Here is the input.
Amino acid sequence: MNSEYVLVSRWRVDRGRESLWDVLEALLDTPDPLPWWPSVQVMAYDGDNLDVRASSGLGYSVTFRLANLQAHRPDRLSFTSEGDLRGRGVVTFVELTPGTSAMDIDWRVATDRRWMRWTSWLLRPVFVVGHNIVMRQGEKHLNAWLAAQDG
Here is the structure.
């Protein structure tokens, strides 16, 4: 039963890398650092640990904590995850053009929910599609939220 996943995404963001960092740092100083991501609900955030529930859109959700956040401005953000998804993640920020950057998200996790581990031999493709849905929605809504902030 292989319950380990390598989940890689690239978000194209309509902000330069420095500007994007400014926005993300400001959001990390609020009670809800993810107001733009409708499928990810912040359950608790204390400035160090971010507890979230992510709804896949496919009839299941996962709950996990992002911890050990380490920011290396302007290049990289790393974290660990605990809960239904256990592992490590790195977000790398790349300037593509002036005013456009990429967030390369590399998240390597294992599922800790019993039913997900037991069914991974069959449902692995569904879990990967669910992750991809959540991530595409995150990219789309982040860009829309940033555009709305600009006025």
